[in-house]
Amino acid sequence: MPLLGQETNQVEQLKKELQEMQQNFERIQREQRQQMEALHQQIETLEKQQSSAAAEQAKLKNLVEARSAAPPAAETAPKPWSPSDPIRLLGGPHSYLNLSFDALFAAGGSTANDIERGLQLGGHDPVQRGFTVQNLETTFEGMVDPYFRGQANIILQIDREGESFLEVEEAYLETLSLPGRLQLKAGQYFTEFGRLNQFHPHVWDFVDQPLVNGRFLGGDGLRNAGARLSWLAPTPFYSELFLSAQNSQGETAASFRNGNEGEPLFGRLMDQGSVQSLGDMLFVPRYAASFNLSESQTLLAGVSAAFGPNGSGPDTDTQLYGLDLFWKWKPVNHNKGFPFVSWQSEAMLRRYEAGAFDWDRNGDGNLDPDEQDADGNGTPDLLARETLSDWGFYSQLLWGIRPRWVAGLRGDYVAGSQAGYEELLGDDLQRGRRWRLSPNFTWFPTEFSKLRLQYNHDDRKSIGVDHSVWLQFEFLLGSHGAHKF
Hints:
With about 475 residues, the chain is of the alpha+beta class.
């Protein structure tokens, strides 16, 4: 019995030890499982954080690359296309090119027998019965960089014989950031003399050029290679002073060193010459100011002058003076700029020093076939030095009746003092008195086209009255920069 009791106690002890071991094993398992779950959770959290950081880094990298490679959102935002949108080249907000093509044609006729050489004085005027290609102009305009903007106007014309020819009408740079309200223009450009001379033919309000502009500034306008400095005065109204220095020779400087294509001018053969010193340059000062007379009325006034040598002698000069006024009324509640009334006038005075001229070109005292003998005495003519005074003006009134419809009326007058050479050669039609009255009517189907009908009543001394009717048509392709007011 004692032995049996001892064995029973030993079995119970073993069972107890087994139970304790099992409990310890289960506790260790639970602890290890908890540790394993904690490790799993920590690993998942770290992996999520790493994945999120990588995604943010990739997103930031893509955003930086997109911003560095693409233009600003405002420029890339989609918008409806317009025919007047500029063509942008080379990318970036400061590099662009406005490219346009403008075609100007006229059809009609006149009772005059000398339409090209006598009746019409402008190089872009209708010059023949039937059709005239007045102007085919390609314009390149844009900002070169933050410091300069540039413009070039390449002209194609077809003469009455059907021959085509190209010319560079303008090609110049303008500064954008000079201090002290200064601006510099350099290149080939229309001179800032008067108001109309600065504008291209497709901007004119009439089919042809005013008589005073054609007679004093030339058929192609006053323009040449040179440089112009302007200063915008710090006044409460617009006030600007200009000074140009340009070459004084060529057909685009008609009142100065103009060779006149080898034909006599004012009874003399002209020597075009070239620039040899500062005194051979053409200097053109101008002052312009603009005032708002009321909320609906604006007045622009300008005075101009031009000084330079002419081709009639080695020490002969020309002086040009001009005054221009522009007034416009447009109501505050206008509809697309209509209705409106505008009045524009220009007056000019020219003092031309004509040098002494001997038609005995070879100095032999005999009359040769290429020499002039107007008085018929058998010897070459001899002209004395004299000063020729000429003057003229035009005045025009425009009425914008309603959107797209404009009526206009222009009056022209030019005359000159009696000259000594005219007593020998007779009246000079290039300086004689004449006047013109021109009513017209213009319809703009859109901003890219126009139709204009004009009648001219011309009265010329020693010739009489002539009547002309011209129908003009224009179309524009591409974007064209805004014109000056």
